[in-house]
Amino acid sequence: MDIKSRLQILTGDIFGGINSAIVALPQALAFGVATGFGAAAGIWGAIILCLTAGLLGSKIPMISGPTGPMTIVVASVAAALGYDMTAVIVVIMFAAIIQLIFSLTSISDIVKYVPYPVISGFMNGVGILIILLQLNPLIGYPSVSDTFEGITSFVLNLQTINMPAFGLGLLTLLIVFGIPKKINKYLPSQIVALILCTIISIKLGLDVPKISEISVGFPKIAVPVFNLSKLSEYLPFALTLAIVLSAESMLTGLVADSLTKSRHNPKTLLFSQGLGNVACALTGSLCGTAATMRTVAALNTGATTKFAAVVNPVILCLLLFKFSGFVAEIPLAVLAGILIKIGYDIIDVKLLKVIKFAPKDDLYVLVLVFLLTVFYNLIFAVGAGITLAALLYAKRVADKANIVQKSVYDRDIMKLEKILETDYKHKIRVVHITGQFFFGSATQMISKFEDVLGTKCIIINYEADDLLDISAIFALEDIIVRLKSQHIKILLVIKNEQVLNQLSQHSIISQTGEENVFYDEIKAIEHAKSSLKQIAKNRKKLNGN
After folding, report:
1. Given 3-state DSSP classes, what are the helix, strand and coil percentages for the chain, each rounded to the nearest 5?
2. Per-residue confidence at 408, pLDDT binned at 50, 70, 90?
3. How many CB atoms lie within 10 A of CB 418?
4. How far apart are CA 336 and CA 331, in angstroms?
5. SS (H, E, C) 76-91
6. Which H/E stretch holds residue 64?
7. pLDDT tens digits for range 50-96
8. 3-state secondary structure 283-327
9. pLDDT digits over 13-47, tens only?
10. Measured between alpha carbons, how far is 235 from 101 in angstroms, rounded to an integer?
11. Counting beta carbons within 10 angstroms of the beta carbon of residue 416, is it exposed (0 to 12), middle (13 to 18) or buried (19 or more)?
12. Nearest 5°: phi and psi at 466?
């Protein structure tokens, strides 16, 4: 690699680290305050975890730190333990150790089989929960960790709103929701709101709740001390936290893989995150995960190596030491506005747009997980959702279980496919999706399409009569997007009219084009051959000219 290429990579990593740090600063402050640990613990958690996981993790630039779902869990644990932060630190330490144990097993593979409605219900629940719990700080009152208590106290507090705090909160919401995405990509709206609203508060001398104190000194290392008699009480909380930390990190890893067209090692990711959270517990800092928003910010700014994850904490350190006085003046209503935007961003808008077309079974699972997440317990919600999804799937399979005689697949077509692959040197490929294409097989199916180099046209033949669930529909959409990004023509062979209608409702057919959908495979093959011949003719004409 020449010097110019190395400089380009280095520049991309530096700017990626800076941009992700700008995104991380207001979030880390807000998450630290929301959990009860304080703003300093949020910032130091982002610094320590990102640096540790960045140095020890995969080559992909993965930016780590406190996140929304993790914040809700830690805040719930703190409330359950009577805001004994020493006890919460012990829980974080146990959770980190459990993460390290996870990294030595194949637990990372299990995430593939979690149904999409469970993930969506959980994320929607977390998003709404964050919003509800920030309503009181938005009008100048302390945050409440319990959903019901938070709603009732908010209604009572509306009678005596702190108007300056509420005004700053509204201005924050206006900025974070109003700045266009094109501008937000280069100048994060959250940092704009944080700086502008804090300056207004300082200049006008507004009497509003603020961060007030923030420690700029390096945190001291201290081994958490716990009572063995409390082990049975702490372990369920630790397991809950470890699952959320691990699941969110692995989901961020999948997003990073999709953007970089590469593949990370899930075990290495969990191991580095576990060690990073151990370091956070030893320093009394807030734990965290690989953060999707910050990782995407780094990648979109040009980061290509894990050096970006080293630049990020260095920038955060500089900001903390240089502007600690300014940070102490940040109004809590501003942080509440930022958290409300984060909660909104967590909500699964993609599913909500097509929810009216979703099968009833998927809706039952989504609603159950959503309600349990918001009003009861996060991990119980996920467990209940997976159980319900499995039971409903088992019922669907049982209802359709009967003995049916089917003729052997047409041998002439099988021969035709083999000849096709040989004659066209794999430029045309036929892929059969047999059996039930559901949430258990959807992610596996995506991996089948990763090695299609040299292919110009793919014929996807869905032979089953079963309708697709939401996971399968989104997986098929992902397959089509990936193939189109590689300039591969996609033809669909759909023999079931109900499946065809379902794909039309979810705009899958519009992505391939109705002219590229066939009932018969042979017609699809003939169309593919004609397309390739036409492309070849067009190229000859261009070369001739």
Report:
1. 70, 5, 25
2. very low
3. 11
4. 9
5. HHHHHCCCCHHHHHHH
6. strand 64-65
7. 999 999 988 888 999 998 888 888 988 888 888 889 999 999 999 99
8. CCCCCCEECHHHHHHHHHCCCCCCCHHHHHHHHHHHHHHHCHHHH
9. 898 888 888 888 888 988 888 888 888 899 999 99
10. 14
11. middle
12. -75, 140
In this prediction, residue 405 has a pLDDT band, given cuts at 50, 70 and 90, of very low
Q: Give 141's DSSP letter.
A: S
Residues in Cβ contact with 190 at an 8 Å cutoff, skipping those fewer than 6 apart: 23, 26, 27, 176, 338, 341
Partners of 64 in beta bridges: 290
**Structure tokens of 241?**
């936290």
Looking at residue 227, the DSSP 8-state letter turns out to be -
Phi, psi of 8 (to 5 degrees): -65, -45
* Token pair listed for 399: 């209802």
Instruction: Give dist(CA 333, CA 199) in Å, integer.
Output: 14
- Look at strands 64-65 and 289-290 and give their pairing: antiparallel
From CA 72, how far away is CA 70, in angstroms rounded? 5
User: What's the CATH number of domain 411-544, 3.30.450.20, 2.60.40.420, 3.30.750.24, 3.40.50.2300?
Assistant: 3.30.750.24
**b (16+ CB within 10 A) / e for 33-64:** bbbbbbbbbbbbbbbbbbbbbbebbbebbbbb
For helices 116-133 and 470-485, the axis angle rounded to 10 degrees is 100
The Cα angle at residue 381 between residues 88 and 105, in degrees rounded to 5: 70
Q: Does residue 500 contact residue 494 with C-beta atoms inside 8 Å?
A: yes
Per residue in 344-399, pLDDT (tens digit) is: 887 877 777 777 777 788 888 888 888 888 887 766 777 788 788 777 766 665 45
DSSP state at residue 333:
H
Q: Copy the structure tokens of residue 252.
A: 């961020």
Whether the predicted model's global pTM rises above the 0.70 cut: no
Q: Indicate where the chain has its CATH 3.30.750.24 domain(s).
A: 411-544
Contact between 134 and 34 (Cβ < 8 Å): yes
Cβ proximity of 332 and 167 under 8 Å: no
Contact 284, 219 (CB under 8 A): yes
User: Please, which residues have CB within 8 angstroms of residue 207's CB and are 6 or more apart in sequence?
Assistant: 164
pLDDT interval class at 108 (50, 70, 90): low
Q: Kindly report the number of other CB atoms within 10 A of residue 207's CB atom.
A: 11
Mean pLDDT of the chain: 81
For 136, phi then psi, to 5°, come to -65, -50
Choice between 26 and 301, residue whose per-residue pLDDT is larger: 26
